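Thread: RING-type E3 ubiquitin transferase, structure

OP (GT): Posting the sequence first so everyone is looking at the same thing. Length is 813 residues per the record. Can we get the structure tokens written out before standup tomorrow? I want them in the notebook alongside the other entries.
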Amino acid sequence: MAGSWDGGYDSGSQSDGSYHFERLHIEPIYDAFVCPLTKQVMRDPVTLENGQTFEREAIEKWFKECRENGRKPVCPLTQKELRSTDLNPSIALRNTIEEWNARNEAAQLDMARKSLNLGSSESDIMPALKYVQYFCQSSRSNKHVVHNSELIPMIIDMLKSSSRKVRCTALETLRIVVEEDDDNKEILGQGDTVRTIVKFLSHELSREREEAVSLLYELSKSEALCEKIGSINGAILILVGMTSSKSENLLTVEKAEKTLANLEKCENNVRQMAENGRLQPLLTQILEGPQETKLSLAAFLGDLALNSDVKVLVARTVGSCLINIMKSGNMQAREAALKALNQISSCEPSAKVLIHAGILPPLVKDLFTVGSNHLPMRLKEVSATILANVVNSGHDFDSITVGPDNQTLVSEDIVHNLLHLISNTGPTIECKLLQVLVGLTSSPTTVLSVVSAIKSSGATISLVQFVEAPQNDLRLASIELIQNLSPHMGHELADALRGAVGQLGSLIRVISENVGISKEQAAAVGLLAELPERDLGLTRQMLDEGAFGLIFSRVKSIQLGETRGSRFVTPFLEGLLSVLARVTFVLSDEPDAIALCCEHNLAALFIELLQSNGLDKVQMVSATALENLSLESKNLTKLPELPPSGFCASIFPCFSKQPVITGLCRLHRGLCSLKETFCLLEGHAVEKLIALLDHTNEKVVEASLAALSTVIDDGVDIEQGVMVLCEAQGIKPILDVLLEKRTENLQRRAVWVVERILRTDDIAYEVSGDPNVSTALVDAFQHADYRTRQIAERALKHIDKIPNFSGIFPNMG
């Protein structure tokens, strides 16, 4: 059978891929070599007292069964009782068998060597690979024989076979060859073999992936090969993917997990795992590794791109450790820790974890410390960035101590120190510290403390000056801060902007830039919108600088859809309209304001925007602006010019006839237009305002009712104004506002309007029958403020609920 695997093994057993190599022999087998009990060639032959020879393990098992069955020991062949069960080693026979085995194995290995080439058929290669497996599993020392026989490179070549079966078996064979054998592993580590094995991790056939990962697991037990495996592009990424795959079988997942655990011995592999989403090894090294490794991996953590959930995990796992490193005296260690903390503090949930871990006191100390052991400015910038991240997490900072005297971040001396740093450092740290103040002024619990500290420091003008900074981030931070401050120190900020050279112009330039809508533009217009709306000096300066014309053009461009798609479009539009509405608050004092409103037909714009459903602030601001414009109508209405009387009429008045003038406004008794006199009746605004009276937002209702009240105000024909409201079916919605009593302001305004409506007898008669209206007026009469109670009294008199001679309140007119 030399040169063939055909005749010496049981061909019927190949169906399951197993080969019975113990039956495969090149030399003839002698009967003396075979154990009568096992029918197999003996490895440790022993002789009984009667001269019969058996395999030691088999005869010992026979004697044990005899004892357990209560029988005396007998010879398995002769069945005669034995006086002794002593076993005598057959050394000569064993040596002969070993020599015979060695000759057979050598011949079989030689035959395997001849079969292991890519030119052989699958039917020749498969038995050869299986024999090598059998040979290595028979004895650990046989692996050295395979090594010395140079069979390993041949098996590696089989990985290139076109047969999947051969490739899978080659991978399996290599795994068996390298198990617990460092020399054989070293051979596989040479050349591109490891790269080839890694490629199998991505193969379609699950069996190939399973065998490849099992082989890599064996190789990864060698520390020398861990770095080699990790250096293969994609190896760790694929292994990490396998551990989380739901399509791989459990054995493959388990082996991939164990392989990665072995690869963690190499720091570069730990870095790769972290880059590919497996962070726990890196975190463990930061917690438990040598100091040098801790610092190296902490700095590396700072460069990783992490999602929010991972940042929270990292903060919870190593946050306290990093904070402790940051507090150490070693500058290199502090830099590494700061770098990592900067990364993980940049999302709100992880920042809150760091706050609870105690990050604030050392951060503040690092920022304010000067002299020995102080941080260089580049690291103070990182500290400032972390502090900005943490403060903008929305936490309550008025209860967290950060200084030795129980100061908090909003304590006056801490805020003063921040303001001092802002004025004496570079743009980067200035920007971050301004962002800290933005965060502190965004909370209603801390904003007043910051405002107080800013006022006491006299820093308002210096903060306003940053509006002109050339750096976008710095400019944005300053604008956002001033916007947060403006509700609480609007007059001081308006004075600073009005008196400063260029700051107001800078804000207007930012707003007017026609490059989409940026966060900075939304913040800039929001700032101007928050400033006191009746500040005549500021409005005049804006008129002089042409701000309102620019703002009008931006509003129109948004209406035309030229700036769609920006996430800042709504706050930008709201801010633009609030600023544009400023001009309507100074109409009586500023002729240029009236001219601007006429030029751009602002009344028409605000009427159109009343129908901006879903934009409550736009509707509220538009209604307020229309109230202001309508109040000015009575002053702008042009009275008709009467033709001069004739000669006879001048001498004899009886000959004169009063001319009839048509086209006069019912409300203002003159010539009105929407564009030039802002008449709501001419602009058909009444119906639109009435439609807003059932709005869910009380502020929109209040602004709409205030605008409607101008059609029945002093200086207009109140009776005609009531008729206008009737014709627009506005009486019931106005009464409903009174009945709902949603806010005190709405009640006050509704009582005023209802009293004017009830001056019309027909309406008063009809309303007098509604007990709900009477109850609402009585409630206002009893519980409202003094002025509203007076008006409610008059309304009750109109519907005969109080006699006219009653004088509970003096008649105020």
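GT: Both are above now. Quick notes for whoever picks this up: The CA atoms of residues 38 and 58 lie 7 Å apart. Strands lie at 45-47, 53-55, 88-89.
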